[in-house]
UniProtKB/TrEMBL annotation, chain A:
Main location, first listed in the record: membrane
Topology relative to the membrane: Multi-pass membrane protein
A Pfam family this chain is assigned to: BPD_transp_1
Natural source organism: Devosia rhodophyticola
CDD domains: TM_PBP2 (cd06261)
Location(s) in or outside the cell: Cell membrane
Name of the protein in question: ABC transporter permease
From TrEMBL, chain B:
PROSITE patterns recorded: ABC_TM1 (PS50928)
Protein name stated in the entry: ABC transporter permease
Primary location: membrane
PANTHER family xref list: DIPEPTIDE TRANSPORT SYSTEM PERMEASE PROTEIN DPPB-RELATED
One Pfam family hit: BPD_transp_1
Organism: Devosia rhodophyticola
Boundaries of every ABC transmembrane type-1 domain copy: 108-320
InterPro entries: MetI-like, MetI-like_sf
Topological category with respect to the lipid bilayer: Multi-pass membrane protein
Length: 285, 334
C-alpha cells in the first residue's frame, strides 16, 4: 500500500497535485471543528465586511464569518460525498460481483435493472423527491437516494472484471475446496476489484457533491444546513454580486474548483494506475 | 440485415422497459409520499386570500376530483396510464387551466435544440481533438489543451454556467444572459427572431460545451494512445498508408465505438446539466419549467416534466444505440 502511494507520487504528477489540492480542502474542512461560534447562527459578526486580517474571507450579508461558514460547508459536503460514495460502492460491489460470478439469468436480470438506472435522468428525479418530501429531505435521505442512483456505471465495470475472474484457476480451486459463493466473492474476488472501487470512489464523490451543489443552489435541499451549495444559494438570494459583496461568491467558487479538480485528478491518476500499459509508459519503460 | 433487426428489436424492448419503470417510479414517488397534493395546492391558493369556508370545501372537493386521489392507489395507477396514453396529465396550477402537457411541449423544443447543438459540438470536436492528441503525443498545443480540459471538466455545470453569467453579465456585458429571445421581436420565421434566438443560445450552449468537452477529449486521448500501440497501426505505418487514413479509418473508427456507448450512457447526465444551465440563464426550456413548477407547488406539471424527461432521455439513448451497428460491424452480424 505504502509502495503504491510512493510510486504514484513519484511517477504521476496528476496524483501529486490531486493529493495536495484535496488535502488542502480536507484540512480547511477539518478546521471547522475549531469554529469559535456555531456556524448555523446568523448575525454574530458585522455583515458585509471585506476580507481583512480579522475576517480572512470577509463576512456575508447574514452576519456570518465566511471563513468558518465555508469551512463547515466543506466539511458537510465532503461528509455527504463520502456517505454517498460508500453506500453506492456497497451496492455496485454486490451487484457487480454477483452478476459477474453467478451469470445466467441473474446476470441478465441485474444488468437490465442496471440499464434502467443508467437511463433515468437523475436531476428531475431528485427534484421530484424534493417536491414530495420538502423539509423531510435532510442530507441523509438525500445521500441515500443518490446512492441508489450512483452505482450502475461502476457495477458494470466491476462485473467486467468479475467475469474474467470466474474462469481463473484459483476460483475453481476455491469452489472445489467447498467455499460458499458469498465467501468466494468477499475473500477471493473482492481484492481484485478494490482498485476500481478506489478510483470510482473519487468519481462518485465528484458526481454527488456536484449534484448537491446544484440542488442546493436552486434551494431544493435543506437550506439551513451549511453546504457548498447553500453558501451559494444564500449569496444569490442576497444578490451578492449586484450588491458588491464579491468575496461571498468568488471565494466559495475558487474553493469548489480546487476540490473538484483535486478529486478529478485523483480519480484519473488512480484509473491510469490500474491500467498497466499506461503505468509502464509513464514510468518510462 | 437480420442481425440489425434483432438488435433494434432488443433495444426497443429495453426502451419500453426503461420508460415503463421510470414513469411508474415517478408515479410511486409522488403518490406514496405522505404529503397530499390537494392540501398543498389548497394551502397555496388560500394563503393570501379571504375565501369563505364553504368555498374552500368545494375547492378541496374539486381538487380531490381533479387529482383522483380519493380512489385506491391501484386504480389511480391505471387511470394515470390511461390518461398518459392520451397525453393528458391534468391542468397545470401555475398556468391554470392550460394543460400541463401543453406547457411541457412548448418548452421541449428549446431544451432539445440546446441539447442537440451542444452534444454535437462537444462530441465531434472533443473526439477529433482527443484523437489528434492521442496520435501526436508530443504536440505542445494539444498537451496544453489537455491540461485545460482536465481543469474545466470536473467543475459542476452550475458553477461553469454561473462563472459565464458573471463574466458576461457584469464584467463584459456583450451577450444576452437571460431568456430565449429578445422582448422586442415577434416569434416566427423572421430573421430578427432567429438571430435573437441564436444570440441568446450562445451562453447556455457554450457553458454546456465547456463542461462536456473535456470528458470526450480525455477519453478519446486515452483510447487512442492505447490503439496506436496496436500491431495493425504499426503495420499500416510500415506499409506506408497515409497518416490521414491511419488516423481516420484505423484509429478514430475503432476508438469511436466505445465513445458512442459512452455517449448513450452520459445522455441522462447531460440532460440534467441542460436543466440546470437553463435555470441559470432563464432559458425557456424544461429546466426552468421544472423549477417554476416546484416553486409554485404545481403537482401535475412536476409529474409531467419528470415523465417527459424520462421518456425523452430513454428515446435519445435508443437512437444513439441504433447508430452503434453502423460503426461496429460486429454488432450487425451478431
Amino acid at each position: 500500500m505504502f509502495a503504491v502511494l510512493r510510486d504514484l507520487v513519484r511517477y504521476n504528477i496528476e496524483f501529486a497535485i490531486g493529493v495536495t489540492l484535496v488535502g488542502f480542502i480536507l484540512i480547511f474542512a477539518a478546521a471547522s471543528y475549531f469554529a469559535p461560534t456555531d456556524p448555523n447562527l446568523i448575525y454574530v459578526v458585522i455583515p458585509d465586511q471585506p476580507p481583512s486580517a480579522q475576517y480572512w474571507f470577509g463576512t456575508n450579508s447574514r452576519g456570518q464569518d465566511l471563513f468558518w461558514q465555508l469551512s463547515t460547508a466543506f466539511r458537510n459536503s465532503v461528509i455527504f460525498g463520502v456517505t454517498v460514495a460508500v453506500l453506492s460502492r456497497i451496492i455496485s460491489l454486490a451487484v457487480g460481483l454477483t452478476s459477474g460470478y453467478v451469470g445466467g439469468w441473474v446476470d441478465r436480470g441485474l444488468m437490465l435493472v442496471n440499464d434502467i438506472f443508467v437511463a433515468v435522468p437523475i436531476f428531475p428525479v431528485l427534484v421530484l423527491f424534493y417536491f414530495v418530501l420538502r423539509s423531510d429531505l435532510n442530507s441523509w435521505t438525500l445521500a441515500l437516494i443518490m446512492a441508489c442512483f450512483g452505482w450502475p456505471f461502476d457495477a458494470r465495470l466491476i462485473r467486467s472484471v468479475a467475469l474474467g475472474l470466474r474462469h481463473r484457476e484459483f476460483t475453481r480451486h476455491a469452489v472445489f475446496a467447498g467455499m460458499s459463493t458469498p465467501k468466494i466473492l468477499l475473500q477471493e474476488h473482492l481484492p481484485y476489484v478494490m482498485p476500481i472501487v478506489f478510483s470510482t470512489f473519487m468519481a462518485n464523490m465528484l458526481w454527488s457533491i456536484g449534484l448537491e451543489v446544484t440542488l442546493a443552489v436552486l434551494g431544493f435541499t435543506n437550506i439551513n444546513q451549511a453546504t457548498i451549495g447553500t453558501v451559494l444559494y444564500w449569496a444569490n438570494s442576497h444578490s451578492a454580486m449586484v450588491v458588491g459583496v464579491w468575496w461571498w461568491i468568488l471565494i466559495p467558487v475558487i474553493f469548489i474548483v480546487i476540490l473538484f479538480v483535486g478529486l478529478f485528478l485523483l480519480a484519473v491518476s488512480l484509473n491510469e494506475y490500474i491500467d498497466p500499459r499506461s503505468r509502464l509508459r509513464r514510468m518510462g519503460a | 440485415m437480420q442481425g440489425y433487426f434483432w438488435f433494434a428489436a432488443k433495444r426497443a424492448a429495453q426502451l419500453l422497459a426503461v420508460v415503463f419503470c421510470g414513469i411508474s417510479a415517478t408515479f410511486m414517488v409522488t403518490h406514496l409520499s405522505p404529503i397530499s397534493p390537494v392540501e398543498s395546492a389548497l394551502g397555496r391558493m388560500t394563503a393570501r386570500s379571504n375565501f369563505a369556508p364553504e368555498a374552500v370545501e368545494s375547492m378541496r372537493a374539486a381538487l380531490t376530483e381533479m387529482y383522483g386521489v380519493n380512489e385506491p392507489l391501484i386504480n389511480q395507477y391505471f387511470n394515470f396510464w390511461a390518461r398518459l396514453v392520451h397525453g393528458d396529465l391534468g391542468p397545470s396550477l401555475i398556468a391554470f387551466p392550460t394543460p400541463a402537457m401543453e406547457l411541457v411541449m412548448r418548452a421541449l423544443p428549446w431544451t432539445v435544440c440546446l441539447l442537440l447543438t451542444s452534444i454535437l459540438i462537444t462530441f465531434f470536436v472533443g473526439n477529433v481533438m482527443g484523437a489528434l492528441a492521442g496520435y501526436n503525443q508530443n504536440n505542445r498545443f494539444l498537451k496544453a489543451f489537455g491540461v485545460v480540459a482536465m481543469g474545466i471538466q470536473p467543475i459542476p455545470y452550475y458553477i461553469v454556467a454561473f462563472i459565464l453569467l458573471v463574466v458576461f453579465g457584469f464584467i463584459w456585458p456583450v451577450l444576452p444572459i437571460s431568456g430565449g429571445f429578445a422582448m422586442n421581436v415577434t416569434p416566427g420565421w423572421n430573421l430578427a427572431y432567429i438571430g435573437s434566438v441564436l444570440q441568446h443560445a450562445i451562453l447556455p450552449a457554450s457553458s454546456l460545451v465547456l463542461v462536456g468537452f473535456g470528458s470526450w477529449f480525455l477519453g478519446m486521448r486515452a483510447l487512442v494512445s492505447n490503439i496506436v500501440t496496436e500491431d495493425y497501426v504499426t503495420y499500416a505505418e510500415l506499409a506506408g498508408v497515409k497518416r490521414r487514413t491511419i488516423v481516420g479509418s484505423y484509429v478514430i473508427r475503432n476508438a469511436a465505438v466505445p465513445q458512442l456507448t459512452a455517449l448513450a450512457m452520459t445522455l441522462g447526465g447531460v440532460f440534467s446539466g441542460t436543466v440546470i444551465t437553463e435555470q441559470v440563464f432563464n432559458y425557456p426550456g424544461l429546466g426552468s419549467l421544472l423549477v417554476d413548477a416546484v416553486n409554485g407547488g404545481d403537482f401535475s406539471l412536476v409529474l409531467a416534466v419528470s415523465t417527459v424527461s424520462v421518456a425523452a432521455v430513454a428515446m435519445a439513448i435508443f437512437i444513439v444505440d441504433l447508430l452503434h451497428p453502423l460503426l461496429d460491424p460486429r454488432v450487425r452480424t451478431d
